[in-house]
Write a structure and sequence with these properties.
Layout (H helix, E strand, L loop, with lengths): L1 E3 L2 E3 L2 E3 L1 H28 L8 H4 L5 H5 L7 E3 L13 E3 L6 E3 L1 H7 L1 H15 L10 H5 L16 H10 L8 H4 L19 H4 L5 H13 L6 H20 L18 H39 L1
Parallel strand pairs: 3-4
Antiparallel strand pairs: 1-2, 4-6, 5-6
């Protein structure tokens, strides 16, 4: 038996037909989520919105395609499958079965796991802030002739600069703040650093929500496949708002502007931001549950 948050759970053994079906369904869903990107990549085409999830995070579609059951589950007769050669799998209690090597992963990745958990718990324990209005993207091109994206600015350079000048920058996420132009940096309320990331992580931040996908990837086989793909789907949805609310004109790529320089645009941004925040918080809880299950299994097996 495995104990997670005071609940007693029976160890689960999946029959070959059961876990193979789960793996196949996972692969099918992953393929659907990455199909457009893979087609573009084969053609050498770029997409200023969707490529971000594969370039900035640098995880290939093949990583998403690999299904893991997470801790506490044995896969019957899996020792005769290619999965037997995958890292982080060991023999289960039943002959011929496999399970995730939770003990090995937690021992080798101790600092990584602790760091991820610290950031995830920090966001869960902090109220969400909804007053940034996505101005981080505007601050990245403030008074800047050279831009990261070869896409026109919706309001032009002068109009973009005027929006930044008229607003209070309050970005709390270091991985957004570090791309601010030199002129924009001193305009931000705070000066986030990498060391302060856990202390500043707040659940209203779009980048923090996208990063839930990164944390799921980093926890590798401890994370059940459905949770990984749910995190990727959230990151994809957030990215579209992130860029729709940016200063770029991305209508050619299907992104109607969310004009945060207007009252209506701000209201629309915050409405969608709140929904993403709620989804991200649910995924963070599931990540922590997966960690607790992995630790409980490690203790039970050890």
């Amino acid at each position: 038996m495995i104990v997670v948050e005071s609940a007693v759970l029976e160890s689960v053994v999946l029959k070959p037909a059961e876990w193979r079906a789960l793996a196949a369904a996972h692969e099918e869903r992953a393929d659907a989520l990455t199909a457009a990107h893979r087609v573009r990549a084969a053609r050498g085409e770029k997409h200023p919105i969707e490529d971000f999830l594969f370039t900035y995070y640098s995880y290939k579609p093949a990583v998403l395609r690999r299904w893991h059951p997470g801790g506490g589950i044995e896969l019957a007769e899996a020792a005769a499958s290619p999965r037997a050669d995958w890292r982080w799998y060991v023999g289960g209690r039943d002959p011929g079965s496999l399970r995730v090597d939770t003990a090995g992963f937690l021992a080798e990745k101790t600092l990584l796991v602790q760091g991820v958990e610290r950031i995830v718990r920090s966001a869960l324990g902090r109220p969400a802030g909804f007053g940034c209005f996505g101005l981080h993207e505007w601050a990245m091109v403030y008074r800047q002739a050279d831009r990261r994206h070869e896409v026109p600015l919706r309001l032009g350079q002068a109009g973009t600069d005027a929006v930044v000048d008229a607003h209070d920058l309050r970005c709390t996420h270091f991985d957004a703040f570090r791309f601010f132009t030199d002129e924009a940096v001193p305009r931000n309320r705070i000066q986030p650093t990498r060391e302060e990331q856990a202390a500043l992580e707040q659940p209203g931040c779009l980048h923090a929500g996208m990063d839930v996908y990164k944390w799921a990837i980093k926890l590798g086989p401890l994370v059940p496949g459905d949770l990984l793909l749910d995190a990727f789907q959230l990151a994809s949805d957030i990215r579209r708002l992130d860029m729709a609310a940016s200063p770029y004109d991305l209508r050619a790529w299907g992104a109607e502007p969310v004009a945060i320089e207007t009252a209506a645009g701000k209201a629309e941004y915050v409405r969608r931001q709140r929904g993403f925040s709620d989804r991200a918080q649910g995924l963070r809880r599931r990540l922590l549950d997966a960690l607790e299950l992995a630790r409980a299994e490690t203790a039970a097996v050890g």
